[in-house]
Amino acid sequence: MGKVIAVIPAAGQGSRMGSAVKKQYLRLVDKPVLRHTLDVIEQCSVIDGIILVVAPGEEAICQDMINQGHALSKIMAVVPGGNHRQTSVYYGLCALPEDTELALIHDGARPLVRPQEITSVIEVARDMGAAALAVQVKDTIKVVNQENIIVATPQRETLWAVQTPQVFRYPLIMQAHRQALDRGYYATDDCALVEALGVPVKLVPGSYENLKITTPEDLVLAEAFLKRRMQ
Question: What's the confidence (pLDDT) of residue 20?
Answer without folding.
Answer: 67
